[in-house]
Write a structure and sequence with these properties.
two-stranded antiparallel sheet, alpha+beta, Peptidase_C13, Vacuolar-processing enzyme, cysteine-type endopeptidase activity, 3-stranded mixed β-sheet, 175 residues, 5 helices
Length: 175
């Protein structure tokens, strides 16, 4: 697909993202980069497209040819933030590695339901996954984190195909 469908158009195409990341890398303004993309077909933006040695660790919410699933459904009593961001709220980014974060989010996203789940993927410089998220997002030692066990797996009350999310929102407004 080589596209990320994020409403409204224009869409983000893989070659455009790849060109931006290559240009950013050529400026040498950062030693390494962690990138998370959550969108339908998001894996297609990284699957074999970046040259080696760019020091980019990318995770995506889907495989290259897979739908993402909306869990921000109108009328839900609690709309959770995206998986990666909400994970940081409950785990200390100074002690957990990006790899540990990836493994927990992978299980959490599958949600024991292969009919309406996606496969979180890792791309490019996987070695960077041994770093702590705080290296990339910063962390204030005075912040307090609610340490949750690895058993903490949020479950959505409903899940719909991401491409139907706008329709769901409109139907909810009319009801």
């Amino acid at each position: 697909m080589d596209i990320s469908r994020m409403p409204p158009p224009p869409f983000l195409y893989a070659h455009d993202l790849s060109n931006v990341l290559k240009k950013k890398n050529s400026t040498r303004t950062n030693k390494s980069l962690v990138f998370y993309l959550e969108a339908c077909d998001s894996g297609s933006n990284f699957d074999g497209l970046l040259p080696k040695g760019m020091n980019i660790y990318a995770t995506t919410s889907t495989k290259p040819d897979e739908l993402d699933w909306a869990t921000y459904c109108p009328g839900d009593p609690q709309n959770p933030p995206p998986q990666r961001i909400s994970h940081i709220d409950i785990h200390n980014p100074q002690t957990e590695t990006l790899e540990q974060q990836y493994e927990l989010i992978k299980v959490r996203t599958l949600n024991n339901n292969l009919d309406c789940s996606s496969h979180v993927m890792q791309y490019d410089d996987i070695g960077l996954s041994q770093a702590n998220p705080s290296f990339y997002i910063g962390a204030n030692s005075t912040d307090t984190f609610v340490d949750q066990s690895e058993d903490y797996l949020w479950s959505p009350s409903q899940t719909i195909n991401q491409r139907d999310a706008d329709l769901s929102r409109k139907l909810f407004k009319e009801s």
